Structure formats: C-alpha cells, structure tokens
Amino acid sequence: MKMRLWHILVFVVALAVFAVARAPAVFLPQRPGQLTYAGATGTIWRGELQTVQIGHYRTQTASWRLSPLDLVQGKAIVPVIFGDGDIEGRMTLLANWDGDRRIAIQHMQLTGLTLRNMALSGETRINGLDILFEDGACVRAEGRVESDVLARAGQTLGWPGPSIVGAASCDGENARILLSGANDRGERVNARIVLQPNGAAAWRVSVQTEQPETIAALGAAGFMRGVADGLLGYGEETRWLP
Questions:
Q1: Contacts of 105 (CB under 8 A, 6+ apart)
Q2: Which residue from 48, 114, 187, 210 has the least number of CB within 10 angstroms?
Q3: Are 214 and 203 within 8 A, CB to CB?
Q4: Among 113, 112, 178, which Cα is nearest to 142's?
C-alpha cells in the first residue's frame, strides 16, 4: 500500500490536535491591563479561568469551549460564560483562517465603570449584539446597549449625569456603538465605542456643557477637552478580541 501525501497530512494534523488537546488552560497568555487571572483549570478545549480581570472589570469565573473539529476546518467558535462578578452573561467569539471575525452577545450585564482611579456604580446592559467582520470590514452590526452608570454616579462625580442608550452599526471598516442622553440641566452626553476588524477597540464619553460646576467636576474625574470637537471627554483604548 502506497503512502500518499494526504495520509501524511492527516497524521500530522492528528498529532498536533492530540498535543494541543492535552495543553492546560493555564497556557492562555495574560496581558496586564487587558486580561489577567489567578488560576486556570481544564484544557484549551474546555477550560475555566478564576478571579479574572478584564480591563477594569473583575469576575470570579470565565469558562469556554472550543471544538477541535472546528479548528481542523479552519475556524474557531468559542462560547464564553462569565459569572459572579462585574461581568455576567454569555458571548460567542468566531474567527477563521479567512480573517473573518464575529462577536455575538444575547444578554450581558457590566457593573460599574472606572474613570481614572474613580470607581462608579451602575449597570451597563447589552442585548442582541451581533457584529461581523468579513474581508477586514464590518458587514453587520446590530444590537442595543443601555447604561445608567453616569445617572447613578452623581455623588461620586459631583455631577448628575443621564442614562444613555444606543445601538450598534457599521461605520466604514469599523463597527461602532453610539449612545446618547441628556440630564435635567440639558447637558448632552454622547458615548462612542469603536471595534476594529483587527481586535482593537476604543471608547470615549463626551459632554456638551459650558457650566462651570460641570467642567470642574468632570475635570477632577479626568475629562479633558477634545482636540477635534472641543467637548469635555474621557476615553480609553482596549481590545475586544484577544
């Protein structure tokens, strides 16, 4: 019986899958400021992280599954479940060898927000979020996001902010989530979250105001005038895909 090339390839793939399947979950790289954890159990196919820090958010557990069959077919579909902490809910990440990327969240709740070193209370709720990138560009973005963090942070900030709400959409190659709202003073607040095809992300909250007490309170929280729009704003750069 002749040994054909595809026999060799199947054998090599089988060896690789077997080796990776036995790799412990602790091999998942940590990135200070983006992703850190205190412990890991399981393998990369089915594992769990404990005492997880994702950006400013801390959660006790983050568990996932990954099918070796999907990997052999050139794609990864990873459901991730967060529990008992600042992040609660489930999301699904998809990536393939063609460079397509997708994030889907049916329901998720984020508790609090950190501005500079100031911890704010409140909740941000994500519902029906579905963002898909193909060939390096956003082709679908939908879903609703609402937050009462600024509305509930009046005592901490010394400024009565509003609740904000908005939806996802494509903006050229990127996906964006725009939220807005106004407080009782008539000050308009806009939040902009941008997700890029390469996994990078950034967010910024801006406030339209000329009231001295608002400028003083937000300035103490780290808000600064934007170069482009001249509005008081605060933002950070992060990643949505590891």
A1: 89, 90, 91, 92, 126, 127, 128, 129, 130, 143
A2: 210
A3: no
A4: 178
State the number of CA atoms in the 13 A half-sphere of 11 facing the CB: 6
- Tell me the C-alpha distance between 102 and 174, whole Å: 12
Residues 105/89, Cβ–Cβ less than 8 Å: yes
Under DSSP, is residue 6 helix (H, G, I), strand (E, B) or coil? helix
CA geometry: angle at 204 spanning 202 and 206, to 5°? 165
State the pLDDT at residue 26: 55
Mean pLDDT value of segment 228-236: 89
Closest CA to 91 of 45, 100, 82, 99: 82
Tens-digit pLDDT profile for residues 123-136: 999 999 999 999 99
What are the pLDDT digits (tens) for 2-20? 444 444 444 444 444 444 4
**pLDDT tens digits along 152-190:** 988 788 899 999 999 999 999 999 999 999 999 999 999
What are the residues whose beta carbons fall under 8 Å from the beta carbon of 176, sequence distance 6 or more? 141, 168, 169, 170, 192, 193, 194, 195
How far is Cα 194 from Cα 141, in angstroms, rounded to an integer?
11
Distance between CA 142 and CA 130 in Å, rounded?
5
Tell me how far apart the alpha carbons of residues 162 and 226 are, in angstroms, rounded to a whole number.
Answer: 20
| CA–CA separation, 87 and 107 (whole Å) | 11
